[in-house]
Design a protein that fits this description.
Helices cover 57% and strands 13% of the residues. The protein has 164 residues and is of the alpha+beta class. The strands form two sheets. A three-stranded antiparallel β-sheet has the order 1-3-2. Strands 4-5 form a two-stranded antiparallel sheet. Helix 1 crosses helix 5.
Length: 164
């Protein structure tokens, strides 16, 4: 079978796939009346793994610059998903933690993410999906891109140590 996209760089196809996936998830969340976007969910996922992180820790874990992170956390705080409190160890720092409202919506968001993942992989041979996962992991290694692999319940299943 001829690949009609062989002239398109794989990095561009992955970028477009990520955009399409995020768009689809954001639409699904909005349709359910959940005021959160994929970019904000990355922060929530980290907080569900370890509640109470400093902004610096969150920026490092999500690979967001400080300005972007502050904007995202401000929105999450405004919507009642997170709260900031002073760090008892260092008054200059703020600890960010998820709220009971976020905790109540966590399972609903995870369900939407699972449904979107199923939609994404619909009609794709499971063997091809497995091969794609292997290729993507090799790409991450080639780029020396380390991250924590989490299951859908926000539990770390493979913890890659990162250097700050």
């Amino acid at each position: 079978m001829k690949n009609e996209f062989e002239h398109i760089p794989i990095s561009y196809l992955i970028y477009q796939a990520e955009r399409a996936i995020h768009h689809n998830i954001n639409q699904s969340l909005q349709a359910q009346g959940i005021p959160i976007m994929v970019e904000q969910w990355a922060i929530m996922r980290e907080l569900f793994t370890k509640n109470e992180l400093t902004q610096q820790e969150l920026a490092h874990k999500t690979r967001k610059d400080k300005t972007t992170l502050v904007r995202l956390v401000d929105t999450l705080e405004k919507n009642g998903w997170v709260e900031r409190k002073p760090d008892p160890k260092d008054r200059r720092k703020k600890l960010i933690s998820y709220t009971s409202k976020a905790s109540k919506l966590k399972d609903q968001v995870i369900g939407i993410l699972r449904n979107n993942n199923q939609k994404l992989l619909n009609n794709i041979d499971p063997e091809k999906v497995s091969e794609m996962q292997e290729v993507l992991l090799l790409m991450f290694r080639n780029l020396e891109w380390e991250f924590d692999f989490m299951d859908t319940n926000c539990r770390i299943i493979i913890n890659e140590e990162r250097k700050p």
